[in-house]
């Protein structure tokens, strides 16, 4: 096996709080999250940069990132600690774009209204969170994504200028 840490996570020989996997991709919590629930989606087969990745797999990586963003935003089950108002989906391709791990990965970064996060600074200033509880909440949210929303759990949209 190569010495890629993300390949080791896929193989199960390095630890990670996994939230999703299928035949092609794997998603797990970032070890140094910018916000709670910050997840990385990767292809299971090693690809260093986008130029090494086939388009179909790239589309699937984004599809899974899309579903994660929807699940996190929906914020179910009730009381989920990773409820968010939106998300940044970011892919740093190449060292010029600050890619630091040489295995393609899509960041899904939950965002809240008024969280005042500056994304570039966020990549430097990170706070640890309880990864097991966080990963379990995201897995539960993904499992509920294809069901009808729990309307009792809905929050009204924030008023203009509010910092919820
Ligand atoms: P990049 O700067 O390459 O876009 O982001 C790499 C990300 O991988 C960083 O956010 C970093 O915290 C995360 N990371 C690096 N090593 C590990 C690891 O061993 N496990 C996990 N879960 N995340 C990692
Ligand atoms: Zn790899």
UniProtKB/TrEMBL annotation:
One of its GO terms (molecular function) is catalytic activity. PROSITE patterns: HIT_1, HIT_2. Residues 5-118 form the HIT domain. Residues 143-164 are annotated as: Disordered. Residues 155-164 have a biased composition (Pro residues). One of its GO terms (biological process) is nucleotide metabolic process. It comes from Nocardia donostiensis. SUPFAM superfamilies: HIT-like (SSF54197). The lineage of its organism: Bacteria, Bacillati, Actinomycetota, Actinomycetes, Mycobacteriales. The active site is at 105 (tele-amp-histidine intermediate). This is HIT family protein. A motif (Histidine triad motif) lies at residues 103-107.
């Amino acid at each position: 096996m190569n010495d890629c840490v993300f390949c080791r996570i896929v193989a199960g020989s390095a630890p990670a709080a996994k939230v999703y996997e299928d035949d092609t991709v794997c998603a797990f919590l970032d070890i140094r999250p910018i916000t709670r629930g910050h997840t990385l989606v990767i292809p299971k087969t090693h690809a260093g940069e986008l130029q090494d990745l086939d388009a179909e797999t790239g589309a699937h990586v984004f599809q899974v990132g899309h579903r994660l963003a929807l699940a996190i935003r929906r914020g179910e089950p009730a009381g989920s600690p990773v409820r968010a108002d939106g998300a940044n989906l970011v892919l740093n391709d190449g060292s010029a774009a600050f890619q630091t791990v040489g295995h393609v990965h899509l960041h899904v970064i939950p965002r809240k209204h008024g969280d005042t996060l500056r994304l570039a600074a966020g990549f430097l200033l990170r706070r640890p969170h309880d990864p097991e509880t966080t990963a379990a909440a995201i897995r539960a949210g993904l499992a509920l994504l294809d069901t009808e929303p729990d309307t009792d759990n809905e929050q009204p949209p924030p008023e203009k200028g509010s910092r919820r």
